[in-house]
Amino acid sequence: MEKEALKVVNRGEEDEMDVSGYRLCRWKLAIVGVGVVLTGGFLLLLLYWMPEWCVKSTCTRTTIREAEVLLLRSTDEFKRWFRAKVHVMLAPGKNPFDCPDSRTVVNGHTPHPAENQTEDCERKHSEYQPVQIRYFTLHSTKYYWNDMIQNFEVLKGLEDLGVKCSSVHDDHSKGLTEDEQDYRRLFFGENEIAVKVPSVFKLLIKEVLNPFYVFQLFSIILWTADGYYYYALAIVIMSVISITTSLYTIKKQYVMLHDMVATHSIVRVSVCRANNVIEEAMSTELVPGDVMVIPANGTIMPCDAVLVSGTCIVNESMLTGESVPVTKTNLPNPSRSAKGTEEDEIYSSELHKRHTLFCGTNVIQTRFYSGELVKAVVVTTGFSTSKGRLVRSILYPKPTDFKLYRDAYLFMLCLVAVAGIGFIYTVVNSIMNKVPVPTIIIESLDIITITVPPALPAAMTVGIVYAQRRLKRIGIFCISPQRINICGQLNLVCFDKTGTLTEDGLDLWGIQMVENSSFLLSETHACKEDLVKSQFVACMATCHSLTKIEGELSGDPLDLKMFAATGWILEEATEEETALHNRIMPTVVKPSKQLLPEAEASADQDMPSYEMGIVRQFPFSSALQRMSVVARLLGEKRMDAYLKGAPEVVASLCKQETVPHNFSEVLEGYTKQGFRVIALAHRKLESKLSWHKVQNVSRDTIESNMQFLGLIIMQNKLKAETPGVLADLRRACIRTVMVTGDNMLTAISVARDCGMVPPQDRIIIADALPPKDGQTAMINWHYADNPPEHVSATGSNPEEVQIRLEEESSGAALHSMEHYHFAMSGKSFAVIAEHFQDLLQKLVLHGTVFARMAPDQKTQLVEALQSVDYYVGMCGDGANDCGALKRAHSGISLSELEASVASPFTSRTPNISCVPSLIREGRAALITSFCVFKFMALYSIIQYLSVTLLYSILSNLGDFQFLFIDIAIILVIVFTMSLNPAWKELVSERPPSGLISRPLLFSVLMQILVCLGFQTLAFLWVKHQPWYHQWTPSSNVCSLYNYSLLQNETNHDEHNIKNYENTTLFFISSFQYLIVAIVFSKGKPFRQPSYKNLPFLISSFALYAFILFIMFYRVDAIDQFLEIVCVPYQWRVTMLLIIVVNAVVSVLTENLILDIILRKFVFSRDKQGTCGITSAPPAPQQGVDRWGERFLSFLCCQRRRAPKAKYMNLAQELLVDPDWPPKPKTTTEARKAPSPENGSYQIISAT
């Protein structure tokens, strides 16, 4: 038996898995077969539930190359196991991109080639010997064996080749032959995102094989064998209703997803063949490398493709959440650039997304050359596309990792252990009383079914369902209901800035132009006659990506605001006009007649008007933080280049002599006031650059040696609800963090304005620099300025003033400063994450402002916060936040577009007021889950106690007694006690995250002891009554009893149901169920009080009244139905007294001992959601409480323990760290060889 080390597939990706190979073993299969027969099929079920056991019990280990079965395990925190069967495919070659000679190509029109193709292949090509290719399929993805790497890999498309941009044009833009297309389809399959809707029968089998329903089936068989036909029938009906509801929900979700994916997913497309022939084909036939023609009237993209000619206007709302049309330009061809100055990069759909058309996006219109079509090369197809990956993440989501659900399984195991004790007791007691063996088996197994309640799963989900309905009423929609409970644990929320904390649109506050390298006075309007012909206004009018769709100007909101401020007009050539010319007719912009001087406006119409044509556009790149255009003024020979972007970036591309000397001070002044600043630049191009040369010139050539024109100041107003919501979260001790792509100082200003950073708190900026010229990576620390009202107007550097003040303060005062916040840019975050891993956790502990963050960095930040045990929420508008929304414990999208599929929650209200509402509902749902679980645990234990006591006298509860308890009491209470709505405001206290916590366990154990005590008391006391004797049908201890009815009763009672002990325990336990329901149904501070829950109130009082009625007033039909016997009136009063005392003791135990005394003194350290990360020293007047705390802690054997959450431990460590927080004018350097004592960095003082 040959073994090898574990292989890894999808290394470094979200779905990374370890793989090991196995081969079927006949003798193991034979043993398993015998075991299945001997266990009546249970072993087969066990192997179905446990893929790891299934593979290891039927196979032997071998190399992956020779494996018949693969065992895969995810490398994430869930460690899930998967089983996959290895298949063999016959093909002419092993590489899909190395097409063999057309003479030897197999007919591959079927998406999943089978072995029967071999006969056709041999008949066509007798000399051909096909190659065997091994592969397996998992989660709608095919993994093929690669001899080079000796592992399985996914074939995604053209990006697998690492093709360069020039190669896309030169080698892949001519199209494929039919044989090449057929050959590639063998590997890539049909271009289809197939969401197969399973049949009802398949869904039914999968649902019925759930361990819970298998256990219920076992219970039903047992109860039927024991004669409990009606109870078994009721459980069958409940199970059928539950299964039917579940099947309907699952089927509906599959149908909805199938319909969403199927819409426009299969369309007719035009494909270019290698011989320049255009063919019509179905989109399912496309393969990577095909060249498709984009129709002029637009289409829904059936694949991911890169534009190689022409321009497209695309709506990408399905992916980005923004309905703003985006201009996609053709991929630059470095081989044709002027003097080859443009770098030939490897094509990447992420880096070159401005040239890539993504699957599922809507191409609105195209712009093209006369006689040359708009073409795109297919990059990926099927589930490898952007839409396919999104659908796959919905089809195969990660399990929800929440302590509540893990603890629920542990609690169930505890109940099983309790049932085991009862099982042993029942067997021993029955043997001692010489009970027949069949009865011993049935009754001992019956005690296990009693301990694990059959309605537990339904009861646990009912609170979530009610919370989901309440959320829907306030405009919050949920596609992952299990995450509602997790929302109740959130203690940190990340917010995007633009569109989330602030208004989506920007208003032009003013402009500040530059003349002779000096700033002029700022102006509020650009729409003036004296500015109409300035290069500044020309840049505003031309440097954008606006287009007209159905006569309406459309594009980025920022571009729209800037263009509208100029008062110019945009005109685009029609399709007919474009066809008359040998090139794309440029977009023309010109000032309106009202802006032109009167002399020009009234001049002869034959004179050329003042208008500019946009010759070429370099779209905005978030990586480059800029965009540029090449434009030409009508009548001018030389063209102009205009540039706009982030001020720091634009200034770096300009001639330094054109940039004002006080550029940094002016920029800082605006950004600290919260303005968004955009810089403009201009350059006259050389006269030798003709129209054709401009189309091939590189971007870097154009964007250099620019002349700085000035600044545009945009105002981004806070939403009215933002400050109030953040204040509510702060009062509730929920941390708030800003994650934005905007400027650092602007973000800091907004953070102060909205209250995220209080006025008195300090902001420390971490400016990290990567390794360079042999120097290690380093972080420069400096303290940001105080709020804007304290900024000096003299123009001196506020940072230097602050540093000087800090130097005057003592080091001890610095260290005692608790209220500080870290701010950093995306670049600094990347450097720190790579070179200062130990420091990263300390920074996120107090990090509040993260600016210039790329989408993947937002996701990394969420992961970093989760790594220190924060429960992280993410609220964004869905634009660049999809990754973070999916990664967070709770993602809340403020966009109603299709991108909200990536987010568990979507709010119809476009502001952050939804966040407190969601947390409140989450807390209410979580507390409801705890209450219901505690109640169901007590219900099973109370019934278990009753049955165990009755087993001691060889009795049991009756069939209809079980039925009355489970249906009339338990189900009614469970479904009504979950209706308490959320508390009206957020409080600082957080609910516990799991069931295995001391307050909850203490509560359950105390109530179990109380119930056990009073049931035992009643059970023993009834035997000591003077009228007590062993009950027989002829017994008459009750004067009101109708003796004539007894004469007609049979003397045979197989289960010995009718006796005084049974009747006593039935009434006591029935009231105990209602008592613990009321005790556990808590309200404030997370839910509304129970007296406001009208259904629960009515049902509880109705059940109390009914049980009291049948206890004190005999109704023969009810007594016969419930199999209870008559007891004297005095004993009924005694039972009522026992019940009243039981209720008082239960209430006092829960509300006085647990909630007030123990929770305050003993369990207080269990809280992890307290305000602030550090705790203040106790006040002198708390001395008495502290002595009480020590005394109770001693009684409860409690030792001082470290907090469970990592961030709490980290905060305690930082309290005693003399070098934290970093002081101003210090530098933290990464160590080349980190030592375990000092970590990976050291802090040194700057000279």
Automatic annotation (TrEMBL):
It catalyses: putrescine(out) + ATP + H2O = putrescine(in) + ADP + phosphate + H(+). Residues 1220-1234 have a biased composition (Basic and acidic residues). Residues 1218-1247 are annotated as: Disordered. It is found in: Early endosome membrane; Late endosome membrane; Recycling endosome membrane. SMART domains: Cation_ATPase_N. Its EC number is 7.6.2.16. One of its GO terms (molecular function) is P-type ion transporter activity. Keywords: ATP-binding, Endosome, Magnesium, Membrane, Metal-binding, Nucleotide-binding, Phosphoprotein, Translocase, Transmembrane, Transmembrane helix. One of its GO terms (biological process) is intracellular calcium ion homeostasis. The chain crosses the membrane at residues 27-49, 229-250, 408-427, 447-467, 926-954, 960-979, 1000-1022, 1063-1081, 1093-1113, 1133-1158. Pfam families: Cation_ATPase (PF13246), Cation_ATPase_N (PF00690), E1-E2_ATPase (PF00122), P5-ATPase (PF12409). It comes from the Eukaryota. Residues 151-228 form the Cation-transporting P-type ATPase N-terminal domain. SUPFAM superfamilies: Calcium ATPase, transduction domain A (SSF81653), Calcium ATPase, transmembrane domain M (SSF81665), HAD-like (SSF56784), Metal cation-transporting ATPase, ATP-binding domain N (SSF81660). Residues 1237-1247 have a biased composition (Polar residues). ATP-driven pump involved in endocytosis-dependent polyamine transport. Uses ATP as an energy source to transfer polyamine precursor putrescine from the endosomal compartment to the cytosol. Belongs to the cation transport ATPase (P-type) (TC 3.A.3) family. Type V subfamily. NCBIfam families: ATPase_P-type, P-ATPase-V. This is Polyamine-transporting ATPase 13A3.
